[in-house]
Amino acid sequence: MDKELHGIAAAPGIALGTSVWWRQVEVTVIKRSISASAVVAEIDRLTQAVQKAAEQIELLKEVTQTRLGKEEAAIFEAHLSFLSDPTYVGEMGNRIRNDLQNADYVCSQVTEEMALMLSSLPDEYLRARSADIQDVGHRLVLLLSGKQAFDPTLVKSGSVVVADELTPSDTIQLPEGIVAMVTKRGSKTGHAAIMARTLGIPMVVGLGEDLESVHDADVLIVNGSAGQLVVNPDANEQHIAMQAVAADKELKERAMAFANKPAMTKDGHRIQVFANIGGLKDVKKALAHGAEGVGLFRTEFLYLENIQWPTEDEQFTAYREVVEAFSGNPVVIRTLDIGGDKELPYTDFAKEENPFLGHRAIRFCLANKDIFKTQLRALLRASVYGDLWIMFPMIENVAEILAAKQLLSECRQELAQKNMAVKDDIKVGIMIEIPAAAVMADILAKYVDFMSIGTNDLTQYTLAADRGNELVAPLYDAVHPAVLRLIAQTCKAANDAGIVVGMCGELAGDATMTEVLLGLGLKELSMSASMVPAVKERLSYLKMQPAIEVAEAVLKLENPSVVKEYAAAHLTC
Ligand code: PEP
Ligand code: MG
Asked: What are the Cα distances from residue 308, in Å, to 123, 304, 346, 503?
């Protein structure tokens, strides 16, 4: 091989393909002074470019909506809103008038300044908007200069797209058949990474300037699970990669045979295997992979993809559509989990030293009752269209459950006064993702209909290892016996109380741990859609009693690093 590069694993899977640089057409912007009499014509030129850009973005929005769904298309709403933002386009007009400079120049200046300002913000979501404004600015400058944009037809099937960074309008133009994406910049929560996961193709981001050493038509192996890129592998490496791609495909196909079977152990124990979704766009994939319901609908995406607080009606429609799509099967909808690493561009969050230990999720909602009640009313209204369960995140004590339930019953009364239908027996549950909640699970269980264990947060809080920090990644281990003991304690409490206990953290989709999770007493496992068939397959080989024995043994292991090895070696199927 020529080189091996390491970046951030943004979308899982392995691919082998040929590189194609996705380059934006460069335009050199020259600063020109204009006379006072030319101001009107220059502003007119800018206005026409803005109008044309709006038409192009509207079109992109429509195409995206048809191809990927409404929520994916929402990003272009944000682009359109930049075009009507007085601090953006308005400011360009001011500068043409006051500084007597040409439209192209003021456009690139104002864009650069706003992008710089956004990129310096601490919040990852807002930083990602910096790429959006650059996208809009580039479009305007191209239109002003009369140049054509990059021609996506150069990207053939089997290509690995290589780019500095992929903007939302780039990703939507990506032709079918590309096998992977790699970029210099970008983050796991950026739009391109979300898109790659939606399309099911591997992606590595954050490869840095070393990516410049990749040329068009180089052969690349992209490992989106390990964040690794191999440039011009030798014949043997290519052969191994091809085998890995084929093995991955074969395993997926074998597992797919289980997608439409009910999830059941060999000795007849029924376990629910559900999917985690971020919105309606994920439903099709969840159903196609055999999800028997939704174990976690992360509603924050509805908020994150919006440019203002989503209204009750907007939310009602979104929840109703998802609930209806699952035709009577359970859909667990989590109330807003905002704060921590997820901030909204349209609200001011107080700066916190430790946002993950701060004012997030249920804490934010209980302090912002109007926002919370808007969501609760939308959920209650959608309840009549299927089997909708309501789940509160980041619960730490009984008082929070009681306060949330009190607001829920107020919302019920408000809707009853308006003669709006609401189901009587909606299941109300909590996430167990704070160690205190796991320890107190027997008490909390008295107040809820179900519990779902969020191992992503439970792991970081139990082990004091930030889930997003590569430096402590080796310590962040969801199968550490300390975490598994908290899971065991929660399962026991829920099973003793006769309520449903599930898991919706990433661990639920790890088929190598399915036997242990079964043995610990979980009754429902919820995961990304693509993992559903493999977990159903694994369950079909397992029996309950041996699973209990393996789980008990794992809880006593002294060394966290041998848990997986032990589980694999003692697999009873
Ligand atoms: C979790 O913490 O395990 C979880 C499912 O929630 P999120 O990943 O959205 O924080
Ligand atoms: Mg969580």
From this structure: 17, 9, 6, 31
DSSP category for residue 311:
P
User: Which of these CATH numbers, 3.20.20.60, 3.40.190.10, 3.30.505.50, 1.50.10.20, describes 265-569?
Assistant: 3.20.20.60
Strands (E), 252-321: 272-277, 294-298
Nearest atom of ligand 1 to the alpha carbon of 298? 9
Model confidence pLDDT, tens digit, residues 20-36: 998 877 788 889 999 99
Provide the residue ranges of all domains of the chain, joining segments of one domain with +.
Answer: 3-24+150-234, 36-145, 265-569
Dist CA 112 CA 163 (whole Å): 19
Closest ligand (CA of 394): 2
Q: How many CB atoms lie within 10 A of CB 474?
A: 9
- For the entire predicted model, the pTM comes to 0.74
Helix (H) or strand (E) holding 223: strand 219-223
Q: How far apart are CA 85 and CA 132, in angstroms?
A: 14
Phi, psi of 471 (to 5 degrees): -65, -30
For residue 27, the model assigns a pLDDT of: 80
Choice from 125, 276, 298 to test ligand 1 binding pocket (greatest atom count within 8 A of CB):
298
- Cβ count within 10 A of residue 264: 16
Indicate the top mutation candidate among 197, 337, 462, 483 to test ligand 1's pocket, ranked by most ligand atoms within 8 A of CB.
Answer: 337
State how far the Cα of 125 lies from the Cα of 118, in Å rounded to an integer: 10
| CATH for the 36-145 domain, from 3.40.50.300, 2.60.40.1180, 1.10.10.60, 1.10.274.10 | 1.10.274.10
Task: Tell me which CATH code domain 3-24+150-234 carries.
Answer: 3.50.30.10
Mark whether 411 is an active-site residue: no
Q: Which atom of ligand 1 is nearest to the CA of 506?
A: 3
Q: How many CB atoms lie within 10 A of CB 377?
A: 24
Report pLDDT digits (tens) over 301-356.
888 777 789 999 999 999 999 999 999 999 999 999 988 767 777 787 788 889 89
Residue 341 CA: which ligand is closest? 1
Show the ligand 1 pocket: residues with CB < 6 angstroms.
296, 298, 337, 433, 454-457, 504-505
- Surrounding ion ligand 2 within 5 Å at CB are 433, 454, 457
CA distance 428 to 498: 14
Q: Whose CA is nearest to atom 3 of ligand 1?
A: 454
Residue of 79, 107, 138, 191 with catalytic role: 191
Of 275 and 124, more confident? 275
